[in-house]
Structure formats: C-alpha cells, structure tokens
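Whether sequence alone determines local backbone shape is best considered at the level of individual chains. The sequence in question and its structure tokens are set out directly beneath this paragraph.

===
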Amino acid sequence: CIRDRYTGELKWRYKTGSVVNSSPSVSGGLVFVGSWDEYIYALDQYTGELKWRYKTGRDVYSGPSVSGGLVFVSSFDSYTYALDQYTGELKWRYFTKGTSSPPSVSGGLVFVSAGGDIYALDQYTGTLQCRYKTGRSITSPSVSSGLVFVGSVDGYIYAFGD
C-alpha cells in the first residue's frame, strides 16, 4: 500500500542558489531539476549528493525530460539544452527565439514550444527537423501515439503528426 511505503519522513534536501520552480525528473538513479540560479542540477536519488550541475544563460524554470542518456531542459535564455545524463556535458543547444517550454521527447525528436511556434529537434544532434507557427502563444507539448498536442491562447488545441 502506498500509505505504508511513503511515511512522509524527510530523506534529504539540497540547497540551490535560488528558487526551484522546475518539476524534478528522475532517471538512472539521478534527480534532475532546474533553479532560478541559472543551473540544472543532477543529484543522487537516494542521498541528495550533487553529481553535476550545468550553468545556462538564464533562470531554469522548465522541468527536464530524460531520454536516451540525455537530459533536455529549457532556460529563460531562449535555448533548449541537451546534456549528458551522467556527466552534465553539453551535447547541443538550440535557440528558439523566445522562452521555451519544458521539452517532450518521443521517437528520436525533442519537442519544445516558444511563443507561437512548436519545434521538433533531432534528439541527438539538436538539428531542426520541422517548425510550425500557430501565431499565438502555446502550451508545452504532449506526445502520444505519434501525435504532438499543444493548447493555445487562441482557443484551439493543435495535434501534429504524420
């Protein structure tokens, strides 16, 4: 039972340099989270020990996504970053001409929205595969069954796919 397993006892905590408004992601024994101190952190899942941190150009508000050994995160500097999951080494970054949403990953593509555009980037190279303009601000993309979904302030929900 969940009630028996989760006692509410604090196991650890880690102090960043500022506000944490990013939802954590967990993969491979690591917890990934961004902070308004411009860093993305990788912490040991069980001890909270810092494994690595990477400095972006501005605050990190978006929740990271993890896939294929890479951590994807967006920053207020208008870049989406791909970092090695275990070392924090920068693999690529892509400028989206606006503050990017938290990334979604599916089928070898990283999907981010910025302003009224949705971008599909190659997961391993960061190369733009396609871009669609909705004309209005859109939400973070969700991916399911080969379709990408976003909502918009124009009152529409958009679905993209083959």
In short: The first strand starts at residue 25 and ends at 27. Helices lie at 2-5.
